[in-house]
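Quick one, tokens below. Sequence please?
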């Protein structure tokens, strides 16, 4: 049949399957999620009318400034992300196209994913409480800490929870605030021994932080390069690997004496 067609006609006929394939691919669901800067919350204050950190069994300080945990918002685990969506968002600095498995546990249902994220948040809160009380030399049997943050899952707020507990109980250790009156934001997991772990989406989180007034951003040291990508103007990055290092950096910033690490 093709031998009876002119060259342009033959090319057109051969191109039809390719066009059809591309059209199908453009609208077929792909294993990606599209993420953007999410909400932030001041762990020293209230979120949706409820105090994020509540302490009993020890005196609590009045604090100034803010310690803001940050999030990213991603398309849901059951959302259809097409090739068109990927192309539209690939070159935007306020969006990130990420493998779905990097955002959500592979193979789980929506309900199971929600339960997984809630469990990670609870583990993060428990570790944050243990790390803070251990740092301050306080007994978990005497001091009780309650952490509440609605509609947020995962472990990446661990460092900020820990710093918030320390600021409420001890500040900088000499009567001042860890924040120095600033709006400090940051991200990172925390272990009970005070080790800070890496998280995802830091380039988007810096945008959320600056949008909500932060001038300093605490970032796991291993993710400095990611955090520097499209870093918003007016936001200073401070790399951290341990809780002690994070507290020391904030204290130096507050007092204005000494050298603060930078990415």
């Amino acid at each position: 049949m093709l031998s009876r067609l002119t060259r342009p006609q033959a090319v057109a006929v051969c191109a039809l399957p390719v066009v059809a394939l591309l059209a199908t691919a453009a609208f077929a669901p792909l294993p990606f999620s599209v993420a953007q800067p999410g909400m932030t919350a001041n762990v020293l204050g209230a979120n949706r009318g409820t105090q994020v950190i509540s302490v009993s069994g020890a005196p609590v300080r009045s604090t100034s400034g803010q310690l803001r945990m940050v999030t990213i918002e991603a398309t849901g685990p059951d959302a259809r992300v097409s090739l068109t969506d990927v192309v539209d968002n690939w070159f935007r600095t306020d969006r990130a196209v990420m493998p779905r498995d990097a955002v959500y546990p592979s193979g789980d249902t929506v309900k199971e994913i929600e339960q997984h994220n809630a469990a990670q948040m609870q583990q993060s809160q428990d570790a944050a409480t243990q790390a803070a009380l251990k740092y301050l030399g306080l007994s978990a049997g005497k001091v009780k800490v309650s952490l509440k943050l609605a509609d947020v899952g995962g472990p990446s707020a661990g460092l900020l929870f820990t710093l918030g507990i320390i600021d409420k109980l001890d500040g900088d250790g000499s009567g001042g605030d860890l924040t120095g009156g600033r709006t400090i934001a940051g991200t990172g997991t925390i272990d009970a021994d005070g080790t800070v772990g890496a998280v995802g989406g830091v380039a988007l989180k810096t945008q959320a932080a600056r949008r909500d007034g932060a001038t300093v951003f605490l970032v796991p040291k291993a993710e400095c390069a990611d955090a520097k990508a499209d870093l918003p103007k007016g936001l200073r990055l401070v790399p951290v690997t341990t809780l002690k290092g994070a507290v020391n950096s904030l204290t130096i910033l507050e007092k204005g004496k000494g050298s603060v690490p930078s990415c």
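The longest helix spans residues 110-136. Residues 37-73+117-255 form a domain with the Ribosomal Protein S5; domain 2 fold (CATH 3.30.230.10).
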